[in-house]
Amino acid sequence: MGILSRYKKVLIDTELQYKSIGSIACPYFKKAVVFNSDGFHHLRYKVAGSEREKSAQLYKFSLLVSAIEIIGASGMLQQYRKQWGSRS
Questions:
Q1: Count of the separate structural domains present in the chain
Q2: Helices (H), 22-86
Q3: Which end of the chain has fewer CB within 10 Å, C or N?
Q4: CA–CA separation, 7 vs 28, rounded Å?
């Protein structure tokens, strides 16, 4: 299966999964993280509006399940660093 045919299948499956999420309660932010069309658009397109490479989109799609788990389990800040010094 070539990347384009794989991409088309994964795109459909991921979009259906993404739409079914709705929102997830995030303990860290103490509010819901909403999975809407803007978020799915961000997975597919760059900030400037051009489409991401198919391989990059496939990579982002593959991380969706992990992102859902991480958002739901994020309960505390694990590292905080404050750096002192002069700015040029």
A1: 1
A2: 37-44, 54-62, 64-73
A3: C
A4: 33
